[in-house]
């Protein structure tokens, strides 16, 4: 089976978004750009689609017009190795974007991302339910997730 390819509908900024995303993630690249031709719904010569990969995962950015916009019902999770990686992605997405709760952020294009440290999932799998609940309660109060604060909360008796 071929990979499932998410198609992201932009008004006119698909190429800009693809360039931004491929600059942030390792193993990422733009693979193809197509343009509107004569007798098509968009202005001739304007970018229609941008095929790109984020860490090897294919995506398509479609400049389809203003009819549809993004919302938080769809998001992309970035599992981060450490706090430095969380900070790097968070800073990139909040530049022109909008912070939300629990590690969620909306980038300057309106796409929602979850910036999550691997350590959160480790804490959520701890056999001590009280630790899990303390870490969860700490996470629910955060915008950007803070590994040290999550660990501190989990360990408090």
From TrEMBL:
InterPro entries, sorted: 3_dmu_93_MTrfase, Glyas_Bleomycin-R_OHBP_Dase, PhnB-like
Record bears the keyword Thylakoid: no
The keyword Transferase is annotated on this UniProt entry: yes
SUPFAM superfamilies the record matches: Glyoxalase/Bleomycin resistance protein/Dihydroxybiphenyl dioxygenase
Keywords in alphabetical order: Methyltransferase, Transferase, Ubiquinone
Domain PhnB-like: start-end pairs: 4-116
GO biological process: methylation
GO molecular function, one term: methyltransferase activity
Source taxon at top rank: Bacteria
Gene3D superfamilies: 2,3-Dihydroxybiphenyl 1,2-Dioxygenase, domain 1 (3.10.180.10)
Listed PANTHER family: PHNB-LIKE DOMAIN-CONTAINING PROTEIN (PTHR33990:SF2), PROTEIN YJDN-RELATED (PTHR33990)
Official protein name in the record: Glyoxalase superfamily enzyme, possibly 3-demethylubiquinone-9 3-methyltransferase
Native organism: Rhodococcus koreensis
